[in-house]
Amino acid sequence: MTKPPGLKLYPALLTPEEVARVLERPEMVQPRPENPQLFRLFGEFGSNKPADAPAPWMLEWGQRLTERGLFSALPTQYRLCDWIGDLAGQFKWHTDNDRHGQEILAIALSEGRRIGFRDPSRATSTYELDLELGDAYLMTGKARWNWQHRVLPRGRERSGGKSFILSYRR
Predict the structure, then answer these.
(1) Cβ-based neighbour number of residue 93 at 10 Å
(2) Buried b (16+ CB within 10 A) or exposed e, 9-27
(3) For residue 50, with 0-12 CB atoms within 10 Å meaning exposed, 13-18 middle and 19 or more buried, which class applies?
(4) What are phi and psi of 31, to 5 degrees?
(5) Per DSSP, what are the bridge partners of residue 114?
(6) Cα(101)–Cα(77) distance, rounded to whole angstroms?
(7) Per-residue pLDDT tens for 53-82?
(8) Dihedral of CA 18/22/24/29: which sign?
(9) Is 117 helix (H, G, I), strand (E, B) or coil?
């Protein structure tokens, strides 16, 4: 299957050293078997539940990536995700709703992540994107609004790995 229109790939957007610095941050999700989490939310998410304020290092990354031309405006939303075990397998095909903004950038913070994309009108055909440490993808346009996506669980623990996700709302 061909790549969804509006899906942009950024191999090695972050160096291994930069990824290590992100993973050392106290905000990074620390999985606990008794209470596993998929997300930590930071910034404005347009919901009734307020998100935590982004840490200064997140805002710095938002500024850097905007200056590099990855975003047309400074991100206002930040998420740290750890796609843990069976939770990754239960996260179904979806399109994000509009409260997550016009553009969504996801940076892989672990090796061997796989993201699937599919056109709902041809749901049996899937475009799979393999990501290594520091790789990123940006969903805009049709990839953002018309195609479904999901983290595909991998390996013995059925994990989907860790990611740092930036987006903005207009």
Answers:
(1) 14
(2) ebeebbeeeebeebeeeeb
(3) exposed
(4) -65, 135
(5) 130, 152
(6) 8
(7) 999 999 999 999 999 998 888 898 898 888
(8) negative
(9) strand
Tokens in use for 3?
A: 């790549």
Residue 27 C-alpha from the chain's centroid: 16
Please give the structure tokens belonging to residue 44: 């404005």
Q: How confident is the model at residue 16 (pLDDT cuts 50, 70, 90)?
A: very high
In degrees rounded to 5, what are phi and psi of residue 73? -150, 160
What is the value of pTM for the model shown?
0.89
Please give the angle made by the CA atoms of 39, 40 and 42, to the nearest 5 degrees: 130
Q: Which two tokens stand for residue 52?
A: 């935590």
Output the six-digit token pair for 80. 């740290």
